[in-house]
Every structure is written in structure tokens, then in C-alpha cells.
Amino acid sequence: MGIRLGIQQGANPEYCESVRRLSEIMWLRMRSPWFWNQPLWYLSGYGAETDRHLKIVQGFTEKVIASRKTERKRVRSDSVSSGSSRSSEQEIWEQENLGTKARRQAFLDLLLEMQEENKLSDSDIREEVDTFMFEGHDTVSSAMGFTVYMVAHHPEVQEKIFEELKGILEPDETRVTHEDISRMRYLEQCIRETLRMFPTVPIIGRVIQDEIDINGFRIPKGITAMIAPFAVHRDKHYYENPDVFDPDNFAPEKVSKRNPFAYIPFSAGPRNCIGQKFAMMEMKVVLSRFFLRFKAIPSVHELENRGLPELVLRPKKGCPIRIVRRKES
């Protein structure tokens, strides 16, 4: 978004708590049909609590947007007062905020530019930012936790990751480039295999636009169909040993032979996850630094820890592992 939120340093605790609580309430309502009735929902007290937390989340988002707007105006004002042209102003903006002209603008800046062209309203921007921030709040951390946990239980996989990373990064290197990320092919296979076994969003809802027939079952237009990536990913028709962690399931030669809709941790089609590429890059950056410097050792048997189905899939017992610093680093 181009804004430092300071979440990891303990800033904005009220926002974090509201996001956590909204996730719990939304999951409760999804699995409780009696709460789909709006009057009953508010009589229960959950409706008012939802509104209260939404106000906090949306208020925080509006502050982020306002802060970015102010920064953009400041840069423009400084540029105009110095007599710079529009192209020079843009160059200043990129250098100050992106570090280099070759990098792309932040997602929020692109939305604000569209607003300046009268293509988006304030509420449109807020909804897009809410989607990006809310959806990425727990999903990435859950995916990385499951990845470390599963790799810890497969030492041969962990060593293969380590050998790959040794050929790409130096142990004391702090910066990971886009080229480095693109070379982390086996690490990406491990992440994808983890997301196959433990998709962070275990259930996806989609409204049926046109009546369809699937194997003799008529699905009418207008209803909401619930799709379960967790079930799709465990189908023996697509994966030979679906309950076994095997990163080779995502070797290029196997992926090319498989129906692309047999793997949908980020959903699929025109309504797929807007942040999936960013999420994958984020995970590869963090996990590459981790596996290059540390070795993960399991503390419990792999099968003792299963996914806890909520709005975001979580490990039932957390990620009980021991971490040992590698001597090579």
C-alpha cells in the first residue's frame, strides 16, 4: 500500500483485534443457518458486535487512504513549487517512494490514480483496500506456519530446499531480488504442496450466474455454491497419494498433465485471489531466509496436528517445532 503500518511492532492493536474477531464472527455465521436471519442475528448481539468491529476496520482503512492522499499531494506541491514538470514529478515520486523508477507503483497509488480519472469512488477504494488487507492478514501467516511444520517432518525435503537456497543467496544477505525469487523453484513446489494439503481458505462461496447441470444435478441460477478446495485437493483422481506431503506433485511435468482447476487454493477464474502473486513472493522471501539460516525439527508426530476449519484454516496445535541455527550460516 506504500504505508508502513507497524503491525509487527505492536502498533494498531485495536485494528488487529477487530480483524481477528470479525473472522471468528463471520465463520460462526457461515456455519449457523439460523443466524442468516437478519433480525435473529441482531437479537443475538453478534450483529451489533460485527458493526462495531467493522467501524474500527473501515475507519483504519480510511486513515491509511487519507495518509497516502496527503503524501501524494505533498510530493506534487513540492514538485510544482520547484518548477518541475509532470514527468519530473513522477520521477521524484518513484525515487522517494519506490526506490527506483523500474519498480511498479504501490497498489493504493494505482487506485488513487484511477480515482483521479473519475473511475473509482472513495467507497470503491476502501473496499479494495479492505479486501487486500483483510484477506492477507492471517492467510499468509497460516500458509507459512503449515509449510515450516510440514517441511520439518520431511528432513530430505528440508535439505533439498537448503541446497537450492545456498546456490541463490548468501547467508548474511538481507536483500532478496525478483530474480532470486524466480529461481526458488523447489521452495515454491513445497509451498504449493502445503497449500494443496492445507488451503488457507478451506471453503469458497460463489453465486451461480446461469443455471447449470452437473452429472444430472440441476443447480439453479442465483444460489450460492460452496466450493471446498480442501476436498478437491485430496481427490485421488488428481493426486496419487493425496494425504502424503510430496512437493514433486508440483514438478512442471506433473502440473502440465493435471486439470488446472484441481488446484485452487487461491480460487480460480476471473474472481480469483487478487493478491496471490504477492502472497507467493512474500512467502518465498520470508521462508528462504528462514530455511537458509535455521533447521526446523518436529516436536510432535505429523498426524497429531490437523487443520482446524475456520474462516482461515489453522493448525489445531499451532506449529510445535524446535528451531536450530545452521552451522553453515
Q: What topology does this entry show?
A:
Layout: H1 13-30, H2 38-43, H3 46-81, H4 86-97, H5 107-116, H6 122-152, H7 155-166, H8 178-183, H9 185-197, E1 204-207, E2 212-214, E3 217-219, E4 224-227, H10 229-232, H11 252-255, H12 276-293, E5 294-298, E6 307-308, E7 314-315, E8 321-325
Protein name: Cytochrome P450
Question: pLDDT average, as an integer?
Answer: 84
End-to-end distance? 33 Å
Percent range for helical residues? 40-55%
Number of strands: 8
Structural class: mainly alpha
Largest sheet features: 2 strands, antiparallel
In order across it, which strands form the biggest sheet? 1-4
Q: Specify the overall morphology.
A: globular
Strand proportion, as a percent range, falls in: 5-15%
Give the structure's gist in a few sentences:
With 329 residues, the protein is mostly helical. The protein has helices at residues 13-30, 38-43, 46-81, 86-97, 107-116, 122-152, 155-166, 178-183, 185-197, 229-232, 252-255, 276-293, and strands spanning 204-207, 212-214, 217-219, 224-227, 294-298, 307-308, 314-315, 321-325. A two-stranded antiparallel sheet has the order 1-4. A two-stranded antiparallel sheet has the order 2-3. Strands 5-8 form a two-stranded antiparallel ribbon.
Describe this structure in words.
It comes from Panagrolaimus sp. JU765. This protein has helices at residues 13-30, 38-43, 46-81, 86-97, 107-116, 122-152, 155-166, 178-183, 185-197, 229-232, 252-255, 276-293; strands at 204-207, 212-214, 217-219, 224-227, 294-298, 307-308, 314-315, 321-325. The longest helix has 36 residues, at 46-81. It has 329 residues and is mainly alpha-helical. The two termini are 33 Å apart. The protein contains 12 helices and 8 strands.
